[in-house]
Amino acid sequence: MKILLAAINAKYIHSNLAIYSLKVYADAYLEKALDYVSQQDMEINLAEYTINQPFSHILTDIYKRSPDILCFSCYIWSMEYIEALVRELAKLLPSMSIWLGGPEVSYDAAKVLARLPQVKGVMKGEGEETFLQLCRIYGGQFHIHGLRELEGITYRDADGEIYDNPWRQAIELSELPFVYQHVEEFQNRIIYYESSRGCPFSCSYCLSSIDKRLRFRDLELVKKELQFFIDSKVLQVKFVDRTFNCKHEHATAIWRYIAEHDRGITNFHFEVAADLLNDEELKLLEGMRPGLVQLEIGVQSTNPDTIREIRRTMDFDRVRNAVSRIKRKGNIHQHLDLIAGLPFEDINSFARSFDDVYNLKPEQLQLGFLKVLKGSYMEEQKENYGLAYLSRPAYEVLFTRWLSYQDVIRLKGIEEMVEIYYNSRQFTHTLEELEKKYPSPFIMYDKLYEFYDEHDYGGLLHKRSTRYEILLEYIGEAYPKEREYFRELLTYDYYLRENAKTRPKFAGEYRIAKEEVRTFYDREERERNYLPAYGAYDRNQMRKMTHLEYFVQLGKCVLFDYKERDALSQDARTCEVEL
């Protein structure tokens, strides 16, 4: 009996925690049931693909594997791809049983089966125990009619009739075996890890709020597993806990452990509620190595009416204080989220939310758009909200009673500008000065989007230097008298990140004579006034590893040191020098 657990990820660097968890759970507990299932007769394999792979390659690979049972893990980004695969695989392997699982099929399982007659059944919600019992049924412990008694599934019987069985009770997290024993298989990929399941909040747009039974993995197990990641020199571990700091003792124990056992390599990502962070937690975070931790904080909106309507609990003043305190320390990357399309939020309200969050200066600001998920309270209220959304994944908002489709288009353009110019962290000094020209950050990005739209620059994959040229072109039209000043700021930002061997066109003429450059590095080789960390390098090597730039408008000569970069921003160290 060959079973294949398959997932189609959005990118290669991603991995699908669900299928690994199902496999290790089934492997562990099937070993205890050898009187029912022989390990030689039950072979469970994994297959991960990406949505960027050619359809025919995935189809061919699964056909060559020819499993008896194929189980797909289904998410918004992969569902259309999986449906297409299911239809073709059923033709090629008609005797294969196809099962689906995951959030994209759990909450309308009967409709999924009606739409896809090729599918035998859907595993609803948490799948570890359900998958284990399926293995035992197909392995011969029970007659296939055992499906009728199996909780957590919706399935089609031999006559084509669909049965919707009750949902399964959630399992205890400490019963799950550790997924990453063979961590070498995840090289150059993100490690996803969970220390809790469930969510204490009831946000109307989110499926996590459906599972109200908060469960935490035993802390001693968690510490042991975190030490494994640290010892294995994993680059990043991304916790998938929905609100990591909802239990103070749990969060502080984990943060204290990784701080005390840090080896300077592994980064840990957490999704937190910033307004729940207390003084003890903030002090812990402030004491961490730069780059050890990054935080994702879902603000979504700062409109009190919107927050109340979406059943969200958030004190934005506390969020502001916590984010600002962490920002001042400068050791933690903060990623703040907004959602456009929520009830009671029109374009003006969203602009205020945007400005409120932008003014906190997070390292990343994600302007997302409401996704109306099956089974969510938001979906139930769609008529009341005048909410229209895409019929296909990702079910993204088209318009609401408060926000027109034209507004959505406008916000999409602003989102693109924020991604290019703010989230890239490549224009920080230029943007800080440019913001002073506008009543608000939202208006600045709105004007920049208008410029992109008028010149047909939007939606194109411009190379990095072209983004600088376009921004300079915009500034030249809007503020022609200050063009040269901003050109120097753009040049400063450019060299802050990149030790470019070819001078970009927008930077203009290089203003330091060759003899001055040579004299500077000759002197630096002897005296090490500005580059003390370059003791092992001669003047030619130092010249290749650094950059000198004279800024007329700024009135200074700056040395960019690419050997000593900021641990958080990766900006080069800079210092003013005398030539």
TrEMBL record:
The keyword Disulfide bond does not apply. Its cofactor is [4Fe-4S] cluster. Residues 185-415 form the Radical SAM core domain. It comes from the Bacteria. One of its GO terms (molecular function) is cobalamin binding. Residues 1-145 form the B12-binding domain. Signal peptide: none annotated. Keywords: Iron, Iron-sulfur, Metal-binding, S-adenosyl-L-methionine. This is DUF4080 domain-containing protein. It comes from Sporofaciens musculi. The lineage of its organism: Bacteria, Bacillati, Bacillota, Clostridia, Lachnospirales.
